[in-house]
Design a protein that fits this description.
The chain is an alpha/beta fold. It is 51% helix and 19% strand. A five-stranded parallel beta sheet has the order 2-1-3-4-5, sandwiched between helices. A five-stranded mixed beta sheet has the order 7-9-10-12-11. It has a two-stranded antiparallel sheet with strand order 6-8. Helix 2 packs parallel to helix 3 and helix 7 packs across helix 9.
């Protein structure tokens, strides 16, 4: 019996007796068959009925099987065609397969040879249908993502302009008030003004970080060969103002070259090293180690420090937006840096993870495909 008892087969053969015999035989095996001796009549039937398979004789006076398959494919691209031919024209049948036929079956027909061909053809037809559905969903999803990106761009514009303007006003008027009324203000009032100024500054940093995070998912990737050793030295040099007056012991192991976007990878190293510098602030000396190794198909880079560490119970929160495991009174920050790290590495096809222990330091890892 056929896998699908309702599979519809269109059979075209100018020899009426053979066409009818094949129709009847396949009906007995669960297929729904419709037969024609005329290729033109079969094409007209395709306009009114949906078929799964088309079985057509190769040599016919009105229209040969190859031409019929091509015309039928224009009417229904999901239709799967099979050529029927005598042994003397196998070479021609193979040529027909190059023109779009999936397979061929030989005359005189042998049922044990026909049924496996039909099963394969139906499987191909189902795959074509599933692929068409998948492609449609991909197109729809792509359109949704494009729409979401446009909304995100509008949001970024709104954040950049609509939120910055009132912040500038608050900061400006607070400054004017401190200047004009400063001598008459009590210590409590001056502290209030300082709190306003600090809050404005924090909000400005938060807006900048949010914008960076929103852009990160849309920034164009430009992969090149990146020398991690050189990039590390550049980032450490850029972070020198943060290390001024600190006793930091740098341990730098050999780092390999990787295929990555250099500007995005610079942000990853900058964020991770800045965190290591920040969270080792209570240590003297602070120890920061950077190293790398090859593991299978990945290049793994780690940054280890002897800072305040964290509780592994909350490790899953580390790379989330606005997630902080330490009080802002102790360590500044907006809680977006590590989220940016994860997003950048994910775009490269890599992974991010961390290990730590309270008061015993932390180590952050990221991997990149080799």
């Amino acid at each position: 019996m056929a896998e699908n008892p309702r599979a519809k087969i269109l059979i075209v053969d100018d020899e009426a007796a053979q066409m009818k015999a094949l129709c009847d035989t396949l009906k007995d095996h669960g297929y729904e068959t419709t037969g024609f001796v005329s290729a033109q009549a079969a094409l007209k039937a395709l306009e009114e009925t949906k078929f799964n398979l088309l079985l057509t004789d190769l040599m016919m006076p009105e229209m040969d099987g190859i031409s019929l398959l091509q015309a039928a494919g224009q009417k229904d691209p999901n239709l799967v065609g099979i050529i029927m031919t005598g042994e003397g024209t196998i070479t021609t049948a193979v040529e027909a397969m190059k023109s779009g036929a999936l397979d061929y079956i030989l005359k005189p027909f042998k049922l044990k040879a026909i049924l496996p061909v039909l099963d394969r053809a139906l499987a191909v037809q189902r795959l074509r249908h599933e692929n068409a559905v998948l492609e449609r969903r991909v197109r729809e999803r792509t359109a949704e993502l494009e729409s979401a990106n446009k909304e995100l761009e509008a949001f970024s514009y709104s954040v950049s302009h609509d939120l910055r303007a009132p912040l500038r006003h608050i900061d400006g008027f607070a400054g004017l008030l401190a200047k004009s009324a400063g001598p008459t203000l009590s210590e409590t009032d001056k502290r209030y003004l300082d709190l306003i100024a600090n809050s404005v500054s924090q909000m400005g940093h938060l807006i900048d970080d949010l914008l960076d995070f929103s852009r990160m998912g849309r920034a164009e990737m430009r992969r090149t060969q990146v020398n991690l050793q050189d990039l590390l030295e550049q980032v450490i040099q850029e972070l020198q103002p943060e290390t001024e007056g600190r006793n930091i012991v740098w341990k730098k192991g050999p780092l390999p070259s990787v295929q990555a976007d250099p500007s995005l990878l610079r942000q990853v190293l900058s964020n991770l090293l800045f965190n290591a510098i920040k969270y080792t602030r209570p240590r003297d000396p602070a120890e920061i180690e950077i190293g790398g190794r090859i593991e299978g198909e990945e290049t793994v880079v780690f940054i280890r420090d002897n800072g305040v560490g964290f509780d592994m119970e909350y490790v899953d929160q580390l790379f989330g937006v606005f997630q902080r495991l330490h009080r802002k009174e102790d360590f500044e920050g907006t809680g977006i840096g590590l989220a940016n790290v994860r997003r950048i590495i994910a775009r490269h096809g890599g992974r991010t993870w961390a290990e730590g222990k309270v008061d015993e330091g932390a180590v952050f890892y990221f991997s990149l495909p080799r």
